[in-house]
Design goal:
The chain has 96 residues and is an alpha/beta fold. It has helices at 25-32, 47-60, 75-84, and strands at 10-13, 19-24, 63-68, 89-94. The protein has a 4-stranded mixed beta sheet, sandwiched between helices.
Length: 96
């Protein structure tokens, strides 16, 4: 498992005492596509291609992936998902 190439968004401590580092998908996109936010819309990779690159980054760095609509989004749910998969990192995406 590699050391992440982007900063953790927030570290969540669960009531069990386990800690999970969360990574905002926007920061991961910058890590896998330097200059991503400066790219013209039509020059950016497709959602499918960028999602695959983010998933590869997550696998390489021992991170789960969590996405939910704003109404259902919870960093604690994301942390529980990671712990349930035996991981201590999670890439989070607000789908709103």
């Amino acid at each position: 498992m590699k050391t992440p190439t982007c900063p953790a968004y927030r570290t969540i401590t669960l009531v069990t005492g386990e800690t999970v580092e969360t990574y905002n998908i926007c920061d991961v996109l910058i890590a896998v596509y330097p200059g991503y936010w400066e790219m013209a819309w039509n020059d950016r990779p497709s959602y499918e291609a960028s999602r695959a690159k983010v998933a590869a980054w997550a696998a390489e760095h021992g991170a789960a992936m969590y996405a939910a609509d704003r109404e259902d989004f919870s960093l604690y749910d994301a942390a529980h998902l990671a712990v349930g998969q035996g991981l201590r990192r999670v890439v989070v995406e607000d789908l709103s």
